[in-house]
Design brief:
Radius of gyration: 16 Å
CATH architecture: 3-Layer(aba) Sandwich
Shape: globular
Structural class: alpha/beta
Helix content: 40-55%
Number of strands: 5
Strand order of the largest sheet: 3-2-1-4-5
């Protein structure tokens, strides 16, 4: 991991952020960046945002920058890809949308790098995330910390911390399409 002092950590949710914050603690002055226009409803968006505050129970100092809920941005990014399943080009476009905004923010506000909690999930394609991150790092002239946070039991640790901190842990990534897919999976159980 590079020796940087001021990263911007894009966060999809508190459970994924928990293990990432723990891993980065003591190395950086961390700012969490909550930009998730993919979330299916305003209520779900706010619930996930509010759960980030519970992470202070870890004893880790961090700030949160939260963007407003803008689902129209997500809808535009995935237009024509709505019928594709989890792990498809629809997800690639969603990763790029959120990482692009993080890179823009990091560059405009003096952060020396940006990264994302998305890679802690075994359901997300870390290779795509890092490909996008590197491309945007060049475009916005800000470093990308291409850490695969699921390594070294990162996902397992996020599950443990979620339980310890009583974090709300959703059973879908957040978009309306993944929610429908999760509901269909649950209906067949």
């Amino acid at each position: 991991m590079a020796k940087l002092s001021k990263p911007l950590l894009h966060s999809c949710c508190a459970p994924c952020s928990s293990a990432v914050l723990e891993r980065l603690d003591g190395q950086f002055a961390i700012t969490i960046y909550y930009y998730n226009p993919n979330i299916d409803t305003p209520l779900e968006f706010m619930r996930r945002r509010e759960e980030l505050d519970k992470l202070h129970r870890l004893g880790i100092d961090f700030n949160v920058v939260a963007e407003e809920y803008q689902p129209v941005e997500y809808d535009a990014a995935v237009k024509g890809l709505e019928g594709l399943g989890e792990g498809s080009q629809r997800c690639y476009q969603c990763y790029e949308l959120r990482l692009r905004r993080a890179a823009e923010y990091a560059s405009a506000h003096g952060y020396d790098c940006f990264t994302t909690t998305l890679s802690v999930s075994p359901h997300k394609k870390a290779a795509w995330i890092h490909e996008i991150g590197q491309k945007l790092a060049t475009e916005y002239q800000v470093d990308y910390l291409d850490e695969d946070f699921k390594k070294h039991d990162g996902y397992k640790r996020s599950l443990e911390l979620s339980k310890e901190l009583s974090l709300y842990r959703q059973n879908y990534c957040g978009c309306k399409y993944s929610k429908l897919e999760a509901e269909a999976r649950n209906a067949t159980k």
